[in-house]
Amino acid sequence: MNKIPFLKDGCEMGELTQNFDWETSPVGKPSTWPQSLRTIVSMILLSKFPMFLWWGQELVQFYNDAYRPSLGNDGKHPRALGQRGEECWPEIWPTIKPLIDQVMTTGVATWNENQLIPIFLNGRIEDVYWTFGYSAVLDDAGQIGGVLVVCQEITQMVIAKKALEQSENRFRSIIEQAPLAVCLLNGPELEIGVGNDSIFKVWGKDKSIVGKRLIEALPELKDQSFIPLLENVYSTGKPHIGQSMLAKLFRNETLEDVYFDFVYTPVRDNYNQVNGVLVLAIEVTQQALAKQIIENSEAKYRTLCVELEQQVQNRTAELLATVQDLKHSNENLHQFTYVASHDLQEPLRKIMTFGDLLKKSFPEQLATGIDYIARMQSAASRMSTLIVDLLTYSHIPVLQTSANPVSTTEIIRLVLSDLELTIEQTKASIIIGQIPQITGDATQLGQLFQNLLSNALKFQKAGVAPLIKMDSQIVLASDLKYNVKPARQALQYHRIDITDNGTGFDSQYNDRIFQVFQRLHGKNEFAGSGIGLSICAKIATNHGGTIIADSVPGEGTTFSLYLPADEHD
Q: Rounded to an integer, what distance in angstroms lies between the CA atom of residue 230 and that of residue 215?
């Protein structure tokens, strides 16, 4: 084939253009092309800048070697050569056709930067970013014969820019969320860049100082060592670590002494040149002051040790005398217990006995006075109960290390046997689930369950038979709720729940009910001294545990007993 002169030296696209069967295309053989088309095609093929041409009403396509990579592999090349634009670019034709029409009809050029135009590349549609201009090309008659596209694919540049923005955003996010006070100082002038709230709080400033030189934002640093240290890190590229360094900062409208631990680290660019300093700091004012106090106190401490040793000796002698006094006090306490249990109860028994005699012997003479005698006897009965409960409360000893495994099931069986009459009278239903063996004191645990079950039977709703449920489960120490505070630490605990359907009470009294003499109902509404639950709390504490209550008025109450679960339980 004879070479067409104006198509020579076009490298790959020049060769393809030479060999293309143009007679089958709307532009015809190259020998018939108008001079303007020959000129522009020759210019495109020889150019090292990406160029593309649409010619004629059919928008027949030409492009050069520099544009060739933008068509990808297994994409539109080489069939795009000589193809009509609409056939070649169906995926983007709605986007680019209006631009082509604008140039073809008005002759006004267009320019677009960083434009996303997805095209078919490498066997699939890919996102491609372009910077391009559309310009009119005149034919031999001076009319617009085509559109020249001078373009550059910038996909990698856009991706790199987005990656850089994402990296900067991540860096900013890391700084803002850092647990330490962090700030980036830019350039040799140490301009304040990105920083987190902690650094601005430490400085006593807000973010309005961003962009200012550090010395301008914090002029009080002028005669201090921090600015020279930062400048040295910037100039030498060597980090600096400071510990418990004193800084005088203007905060809260006064100049304060503030101590810091900090690290100044040089920040380098892609060419390994220092372009900033990263500041990481933590305020240690309290620790520094405490250390000073400790150091200043060492001499005094040594002197005090000698004095304390002498005081200990003296105190030991006093404690020995106190122990002797306690022995006498315990003897007096036993004597008081006898008086309280016998001598104080005796007058009360006489009051109740003689009251019964008066009511039986002189009913007519007493008339309405019988009611006064009944009230007197009721008061005496409550007084007797109160004395018994007080004695019980005061005699609960602290649990000793000799505590033994206790069959809780047997204890509850005995308690239910004692409460058999009350259970029958109230028509109560009691459901006992799995109750664990507990290490402790059987007598104290019996008192505890006696009080809890009696309490559940006593506070029943009018006309509703009591329903009481007991069950247990193991609770890990790490799963205990905030209001559960056992007296002894353990890896896990037995939780024994006693739930009733009784009157319940307001949850604001959850703690109050375990205090001595605390009653949430009138003394004539429900009998009792207000000590029973205090006894339960004391026994739970003696066993290394605790007890809490959860209740809703009218819906019943749940008492939860927590006791350490030893390995042999």
A: 11
